Each structure stands twice: as structure tokens, then as C-alpha cells.
Amino acid sequence: MRIRKFAFVLAAGVLGLAPAKAQEQVEVLHWWTAGGEAAALSVLKDNLAKQGVTWKDMPVAGGSGVQAMTALRARVTAGTPPTAAQLLGFNLRDWGSQGFAANLDDVAKANDWEKLVPEPLKAFSKDAGHWVAVPVNIHSTNWLWINKAALDKSGLQPPKTLDEFIAMLDAFKGQGITALAHGGSPWQDTTLWEAVVLSIGGMDFYRKAVLQLDPAALKSDTMRKAFDTMTKLRGYFDKGFSGRDWNLSTAMVIKGEAGAQEMGDWAKGEFIGAKKTPDQDFVCIRFPGTQGNVLFNADQFMMFKLGAKDIPAQHKMAAAVLDTSFQVAFNKVKGSAPARLGVSDAEFDACGKKGIKDVAEAIAAGTMVGSLAHGYAQPDSIKNAFFDVVTQHLNGQLTTDQALTRLPAAIAAAK
Ligand code: GAL
User: Fold this and answer.
1) By percentage, how much of the chain surpasses pLDDT 90?
2) Closest-lying ligand 1 atom to the alpha carbon of residue 37
3) Is 64 near ligand 1, meaning CB less than 6 Å away?
4) 78, part of any domain
5) Whole domain around residue 337: which residue ranges?
6) SS3 per-residue string spanning the chain
């Protein structure tokens, strides 16, 4: 079989049957390796294949892209950047300001991006007034995913407040299942923590503590309550939580081994992949007490500066990403809201419709702000200072008193 294929290729070459023009290709570095993520990515691969652009995959497993960022640094340092890389928030700014990004102004102009991309995303898609990245979605982190059968068994309504949330977790504990599925890693701990902070302090407090880094807010009684709540929530995890990948925790909720998971809306991709239906098999709600607010993280593809031969494929990919039909096809699988304004929600399921509505309302009200855990609130140095304190506290290495002293100090040192 192999020999025959080789003989054909050889004959084709000799007879001049090989394509005269090199195939357009994009090499894309990303961390979408979980089932739902990979399914969404296929939508993009297929779209580009139809336009004659081949896809060279550079997947780097690891939720939220921690490992992917190390791999990207290595490639750029070696002088061989990929065509495009999935990036978030302040990492976009880092690469953009260092002069590694290709200029996408022409594609942006031809496709009206200025008008179509919401301001909070645009602030990260551009560097010094030039488009350097194309946003693919609007995810948000303050979501709760609940197993519907466990909820029905509890006789409770989906929780709207933290107290109702705790009551639901107690009921799940009583059912003999893991009440709260959690994967212990700094980004996952902080994804939970930022939802708790928002729930307890509200948007003004989140802004003060997380966005403005106000020292008084960082060691306030409200922050104390947030850390104490984290300790309480830890009591609802199972023994094996440490180091577990986010999608394995989602699988526990899907199978009914756990009652609920706090996670961004990429979790929906796992439910859909397992052929589960919103409101029938699972329930998606804003994390109790955070209704009306959206902590967003938008995946964006930055194109790297390469030779002239790579530009057509880069431009095709950039234009494809913000195309309306692609935005629908991709985001309904990924769990996110479209990255362009005004896309119809008709094809989205109940969770998708809710996400789109929440995002539109929060943008209008000015209550869509960046997720800390996913790089949209602070640069890496400060984000990592938060990560250290949140994770050490959750793992019992710091008391709440110590966390309240350590947090402002770690942030001041990182500034
Ligand atoms: C987020 C990213 C999502 C999803 C998630 C888990 O940072 O924005 O698209 O991939 O990580 O890996």
C-alpha cells in the first residue's frame, strides 16, 4: 500500500502533475484539546480547507493555555513562530507590543471589524491603534453547571444566592455524590475564586480589588468573606480534586458522580459532546449572586510576522474567524457567545441563548469586565501573584488571616 502510494507520488512528480503553487497553510498553536474544544476547532479547520488552506495543528494540552504559552515562547525565541496562536488578554498585549504580530488592518477594514467587535475585546485586539489579533468568541467564567437529576432529587430550585448554593451542595452531599466537582490548579482555583469574590462583593468590589488592586479592598472584610467561602467550598470537593483537568470534573457532573461544577462556558462543549441537553440533563446558571455581571475571556488568534508567502493564508484565516456563519457554527459548539455584535441566537441552545443575552446586556450596562484567571484583568506577573495566594489558601497552606496579609504584599511586589 505504502509502496504504491510512493510510486504514485513519484510518477506524479515526474509527469509534472504536482501542483505548481505551494499549498497555502496555517500552523496554529492552541490548547483546545478537550472533546468539546476539539470539536469546535474542527469547524475552523473545515472552513479553511474549503478555501484551500491546509491546517498544521500545534496543540499544547493544558487548560487555560498555561503550557501553550511556554511552547509559544520557545517557538518565538527560536525564531520560528507559528502562523497564528490562540492568546488571551494581556498576553496579546505583550506579544503585540514586542513587535511580533502581523498587521491585520486591511482585513479589519475590509470586514468592518471596527464596528462589529465589542469594545472590551477590541481593547486587546489592537496594539498602538493597529489590529494584531482576531477574536473568535466571548467566553465567561461566572457560570455554574448542575446535574439536573441530582437537582430534581434535591427538590430545590437552581440557587440564586450563595446561601441557596450551599444548601444545594449540602443536599448533594446527602445524596452521596461529590457535591462540587473541582480541579485543583491555580487557574481553576482562581476561576472559582473570582466568581466567589464577585458574588460576595458585587461588581464595584471586583473592580476595586481585582482591576484597580486597591490595597484596602484586598485586605477588607469582604475579601475575608471570600477566602472563608473558599474554605467552606473546599469541604464539598472530593478527595481526588488536586491536579484534575477541568473537563474531567465536567465529566463527573455529566455522569452524575458530582452535582455541580463552577466553570467557564467552555464546559458546555463537554455536555453537548456527551449528547446532553440543557434543562433536560443539565442546568446552566450564572454563579449564584453574580447575575447581571459577566467576567469575560475572549480567545483571540494573533497572527505572527512571517514572510510574504504566509500573508494570504493568514488573511483568509483572520477573515474566516469573524465571518457570521462561522461565528454561529463555532460558538454553538464551543459554548461561548459570538465575538461580533448582532449575530442571531436562533441556532443556539438554551445555554447559548442565555450567554448571548447576558453578554449583550452586560456590554450595554458596562458590567462585562475581564476575568483575572484567564488573563483579561491583569498582566501575568500580577495574575500569578493572585494565583499563588488563592491556591495556597485553598490547599490549607495559608490561613485566611495570612492570605489577607500576603495578597496585597505579593501584588505590590509584582507591580
Ligand atoms: C480558557 C479558554 C477557553 C478554554 C479554557 C479551557 O482560557 O479561553 O477557550 O479553552 O481555557 O482550556
Assistant:
1) 94
2) 10
3) yes
4) yes
5) 24-139+296-365
6) CHHHHHHHHHHHHHCCCCCCCCCEEEEEEECCCCHHHHHHHHHHHHHHHHCCEEEEEEECCCHHHHHHHHHHHHHHHCCCCCCEEEECHHHHHHHHHCCCECCCHHHHHHCCHHHHCCHHHHHHHEECCEECEEECCEEECCEEEEEHHHHHHHCCCCCCCHHHHHHHHHHHHHCCCEEECCCECHHHHHHHHHHHHHHHHHHHHHHHHHHCCCHHHHCCHHHHHHHHHHHHHHCCCCCCCECCCHHHHHHHHHHCCEEEEECCCCHHHHHHHCCCCECCCEEEEECCCCCCCEEEECCEEEEECCCHHHHHHHHHHHHHHCCHHHHHHHHHHHCCECCCCCCCCCCCCHHHHHHHHHHHHHHHHCCEEECCCCCCCCCHHHHHHHHHHHHHHHCCCCCHHHHHHHHHHHHHHHC
Q: Residue 48: pLDDT above 70? A: yes
Same domain, 190 and 311: no
Domain CATH number, residue 160? 3.40.190.10
Summarize pLDDT for 196-235 with one digit per residue, the tens.
Answer: 999 999 999 999 999 999 999 999 999 999 999 999 999 9
Measure 119 CA to ligand 1 centroid, in angstroms. 21
Ligand 1 geometric centre to CA of 369 (Å): 17
* Same domain as 179, residue 278: yes
pTM reported for the whole predicted model: 0.94
One domain for residues 283 and 401? yes
Report the residue among 64, 67, 136, 372 best suited for mutation to probe ligand 1: largest number of ligand atoms under 8 A from its CB: 64
Cα(358) to centroid(ligand 1), Å: 19
Decide whether any atom of ligand 1 lies within 6 Å of the 266 Cβ: yes
Q: Determine whether the shortest distance from the Cβ of 270 to ligand 1 is under 6 A.
A: no
Residues 326 and 357 in one domain: yes
Q: Are residues 195 and 274 in the same domain?
A: yes
How many domains does the chain contain in total?
2
Q: What is the pLDDT of residues 262-295, one digit of tens each?
A: 999 999 999 999 999 999 999 999 999 999 999 9
